[in-house]
Amino acid sequence: MSQAENKMGAMPVGRLLFSMSLPMMISMLVQALYNIVDSIFVAQIAENALTALSLAFPVQNMMISVAVGLGVGINAFLSKSLGEKNSADVNKSATNGLALIWAGCAVFALAGFLLTDAFYRLQTDIEEIAVYGRDYLSIVCIFSVGLFCQIAFERLLTSTGRTFLAMITQSVGAIANIILDPIMIFGLFGFPALGVKGAAIATVISQILASALALYFNLRFNREISLSFRGFRPDGRAIRIIFSVGLPAILMMSIGSIMIYGLNRIIISFTATAVAVFGVYFRLQSFIFMPVFGLTNALVPILAYNYGARQKDRIVRTIRLSMICSVSIMTAGFIIFELFPDKLLMMFNATDAMLDVGITALRVISVSFLGAGFCVVAGSVFQAFGQGVESLIISVARQLIVLLPAAWLLSFSGSLDAVWWSFPIAEIVTVALSVYFMRRLYYQKIKDLSRPDQAKTRK
Known about the structure:
The chain is an all-alpha fold.
């Protein structure tokens, strides 16, 4: 039995979850920091430049959705195969998953060539915003290979319990971006000042660097997985299993892109400044959500492994501890947003108009944090047990059935402040659905779970 298997199957749950999630939390906090720093530098160019990046967010979120969704499918299949000691399926999940990742990358590269200008013209008639946006988005789409490969290779590391190595790759990429941003944007050390294009170039260089490092770590240290493509042929069963978990995750995260696009269309009718504020909110909230996502990145392989090994007690303890940690983090985020919204906005060179819109927006939207911690963990639990459809249903209900219609209806009040209340309203529905599906999952797959040797003993 390998060291990674021993750790996920035998180490005390609290220490296991802490040891696997802490590196991911740190690396994701660094990532969130570089997203914030990226926007802080762009905001120095002009408010319209910041608005352009905010309008680009749905497409960037869609790219991340595809890469992470496929990564979740690879992660769940690979970790479960490790728990079952099935080395053939371990390698099939890795090679077939990477093939799917590269196919997704090719689609977005083509879209970057053909569709970015049309994407912006659909959202705004302000020429400066459209030009800034086209310059930025075309680069990050065409060179998205770094993003896709980084996420895929890091998922392979976390699937076998090597979250510390994944932390290193994410941190290196984030730190490189923080260093390159001012150099490329403002033209330091003899480089030409490239403005918004410089922000995009800094981003893709950093992603490519991180992906190369993650590939090296897999080849050098990840002995449980063979990444050889010699004689590779697509395996229909492996692809179906990856898609059964990954496709709902992709759709679930992609729904976020639809929500952001739709909400941008609603709030830009009040003022373009509202879009800039909404973009700032998303970057700030990522600093709160990223530690929770780091926690759930560790949670999925732990649960999948112990489900394959039929260890009920470890599953229950892991879920309970994850819930406590997640809710605590989100509550802390809520308090920060309520007490210091003006100081958070001033980091982005906020004008008086941005402060007037943004202080209320941050305070109202952050009310939804109080339920979000529970829901994020619940979604990862569904994915770990191969029930990504439940996560999809919850996400559709929250963002398309409740949030967007509520925002649209509230917009008829003529008050932009009223529109922000669509977030807390949607979170109430999300919590109720998550509780229902968690109870059903427990009684269907966890309550009567026992190890094979225990079942034989009872017989």
